[in-house]
Amino acid sequence: MSESVIVEAPPATETAPVKGMKKNGKQWHDNKGPFRPKAGQTSWEKRSEERKALAAVKAKEKELKEEKESERQRRVEAIKTKRAAKEERERFAKMEEKMHKRRVERLKRREKRNKMLKRHAAKEAMQSAIQIQPPTSFGDLLRQARGSRDTSPSHSRRESVAPGQADGSVNGKEESTPGITIPPRRPLRQADVELEAKRVEARERDLRAVLQSLSDQSLKTSRRLDDTYYSILEKVSVLRQTIGTLQELSGLTRELHDNFESDTTELVEDVTGQVEAFDGFKAQQEQVSGLEERIRAGKEKADALTARLERAKERVDARAKSEAQWQAKNTHRVRIFWAIVAFVATLILALVLFRPAQPTHRVPEPQSTLDPATREAILNADIPNIAKEAIIRPLTSTANHVVETIDLHLVLEDDERLRGFDEL
């Protein structure tokens, strides 16, 4: 029970915070916040600004470096592209020249081979046509085989060579066996010539077929060799480009390593300089103590200004009250004054409206006291005209002056009444 009482009951010394409210309950103002000087920046803010500026400078340097690197890469790529195009043109030129040389050599070989085949075919045809009997010696057979270079089936060659060999063997046997008579040579017939011509044509056809197959095979082989050579050249060019790219990559890696080392060294020096610049945080402690003193002085000044403000508020309240009282009195007086003025104006207006008419004043015209004889004598006298007029005029002017004075007096009375009415 005692604990609950202690918790709930507020201490006697505590008072509610005073609000900036006037005694009449108007113009409610909250309490002012504490005075916090913000004129200058603290050391931390200055360091933050310096860091931001340094970061902006580094970002700008990095951007410039990247732009320079991209420009260099673009130039390198342009040079590489130009070099690759040049190498490709040179390679195609070399390939074209080589293929042209090969084609020319192939055509020359084909022409030479055709000439040789034609020459050998004609030679063999002439030999077969002129020859009365087939060759009987082994040397003739070898020369015939070497000259023909036949690749036809063996049965066709055996048919053409067998009679000679048989005759040769018979002749040899006949020569080797004494006492044997040699039969006479039979004459060459047209059927034998035609048969030999047919055999020669068959051999030529076989030779042409074999040569055609050889040429086709050689063309296929040369084409395959060209394709292999081109593929090898392409792979070599790709390998060269790869090697160049690797060399460039190694150079870029080396440059990146150097830049990284320089940046790290600069960063370490910067951090070391900042740490050394702190000097045990003495400057910061002095700044903090100076700020505390300034805050304390500002608080005292704020309290003094608050007290002056309270006094000024009290004076303003008193002044407002006196002003309100004076305003009420003045309003009452003005109302009384205007009531009196309205009454007087109404009274004057009634007098003006209901006043009886005044009688008309008739002023008798004064008679001139000078008789005509005197008047004529004055006019005929030897005196200046001004004196004559002064003697004759006074009487008439006096009468006119009397009438004008009476009228002016009446007009002035009316004007004074109207002026008073206008003033009211």
UniProtKB/TrEMBL annotation:
The chain crosses the membrane at residues 336-354. Keywords: Coiled coil, Membrane, Nucleus, Ribosome biogenesis, rRNA processing, Transmembrane, Transmembrane helix. Residues 44-99 have a biased composition (Basic and acidic residues). GO terms for cellular component: nucleolus. Its main location: nucleus. Residues 100-121 have a biased composition (Basic residues). Pfam families: Cgr1. Residues 1-191 are annotated as: Disordered. GO terms for biological process: rRNA processing. Residues 281-315 form a coiled coil. It is found in: Nucleus, Nucleolus. Involved in nucleolar integrity and required for processing of the pre-rRNA for the 60S ribosome subunit. Belongs to the CGR1 family. This is rRNA-processing protein.
